Amino acid sequence: MALSEQQIERYSRHIILKEIGGAGQEKLLASKVLIVGAGGLGAPAALYLAAAGIGTLGIIDDDKVDLTNLQRQVIHFTPDVGVPKTESAKAKIETMNPDVTVKTYSLRATAANISEIIREYDFVIDGTDNFSSKFLINDACYFEKIPFSHAGILRFFGQLITVIPDASACYRCVFHSPPPAGVVPSCSQAGVLGVLAGVIGSLQATEAIKYILGVGDLLTDTLLTYDALTMEFRSVKLNRNSRCALCGDKPTITELKDAEQAVCDLKGSPND
Hints:
The protein has helices spanning 5-10, 12-15, 21-30, 42-52, 85-96, 114-118, 131-144, 171-175, 187-190, 194-213, and strands at residues 32-36, 56-60, 101-105, 123-126, 148-154, 157-163, 222-227, 232-237. By secondary structure, the chain is an alpha/beta fold.
């Protein structure tokens, strides 16, 4: 793929980076990234990936824009209230960068449909807000051998990890299984700092770009946490769990299953 004059100008600040250059920008334009959830995390990730020139962005979400979303879901505007999030996100991305092809999936990701969708992509971003979806994404990406970025936010706290199937610890190595429904609060119950979503979602986009380019160090075998109140980042080193039910030496999870929905809490410590 040869860059046009307009593309050379658009991506000039990338191209002058020796780690990217013209060849790297061509890689980005040829790549495909899937974002599951066009909410707090998915919104900034989608905007920055579109600006970077990711050639194809897939967006999965079955929800419509709500007024309460606008405090943090920056891809949606006030006139979008009531509009499906996939349509709202697609409109902003296409306006920002016509180089990007946007594929929308206005549905809930389930064990019955996720594998067929994700196998078309090079990298997946988990922007969901419930445990069942996060474990489903982890398991599907493992079976399809697709790398992905997990993240979660609540109150003033965020976390993320990048998973490369068969090469790093997976989400189940760290958190094992979803907690019982109703045990932990949701963002609507506990609250979340709006700008926190921008910080963590942008880091997820960074991991996707680095993976595609093959540059830098990914957050594999590392849980990165961020406390917005203290402005502290902390890296927790992880090990692949040989007893993991999914990727361990004797796996007991051999097919995708839908788990009961449970909202996300970030209090769990690695390897509990």
